[in-house]
Amino acid sequence: MRHLVLRNLLSLIALLGVFGWLSPAQALVRIHVDLSAQQMQVDADGASYSWPISTAASGYVTPRGSFAPTSLQRMHYSHKYHMSPMPYSIFFLGGYAIHGTYATGYLGRPASHGCVRLSTAHAAELFHLVQAEGARISISGTPPASAIYARRPARPHYGETFAAPRPVETGFFVFGRPVGSPYYSSW
Question: How is the chain split among helix, strand and coil, in percent rounded to 5?
Fold first, then answer.
């Protein structure tokens, strides 16, 4: 009788092990995207990070909910948006991804077509964490009412950054064209 109880107990332990209940806990990276604050909170392996992000601009949507990564791509080029580079992409729903951006001046405000953008350095760090440990992604909040166009970072006007080019005369030629030729114009 004791042999039968021991055998059943071992069977139960093996069954629980198959379902992962006795295996060591997997350290999933927890990623929380706050649309209201345009911030991402990342908790991984005892460390915590808070990074500025950009989500959907006016007229676009960043989906809310809980997701798991579906695909990781070191470099992806968007076929939908003019082959725009999406470094360190972590796809989580169809074409939606968390990825790096080179337009860091827009971080902290809505600016994307729906993806979650963060600096390329932070995206690389997050990519490697997720690649090693897996992740759970949650997105909540309400995006700020202002659109990207209302809060666009100031960029200098063309004339303010440098003077418009002027022809440089070198003898009878201006930029390799004879002065007075029909191809010459005096800007």
Answer: 20, 35, 45
Rounded to the nearest angstrom, the gap between the alpha carbon of residue 120 and the centroid of all alpha carbons in its chain is: 8
Would you call 4 helix, strand, or coil by DSSP?
helix
Residue the block writes with tokens 């600096």? 119
C-beta of residue 67 within 8 angstroms of C-beta of residue 90: no
Between 42 and 175, the more confident residue is 42
| Identity of residue 49 | Y
Which token pair is 30?
């927890």
Q: Is the whole model's pTM more than 0.90, yes or no?
A: no
Which residue ranges form the domains of the chain, and what is each CATH number? 26-143 (2.40.440.10)
Give the model's pLDDT for residue 63: 97
161-184 pLDDT, tens digit each: 444 444 444 444 444 445 454 444
Q: Which amino acid is at 142?
A: T
Backbone dihedral angles phi then psi of residue 173, each to the nearest 5 degrees: -120, 145
- Cα Rg of the chain, angstroms: 27
Distances in Å between the alpha carbon of 151 and those of 51, 64, 158, 178, 184?
19, 23, 20, 48, 42
User: Position of tokens 């166009």?
Assistant: 149
Q: Residue 105: what are its φ and ψ, rounded to 5°?
A: -65, -20
122 vs 51: CA distance, rounded Å: 8
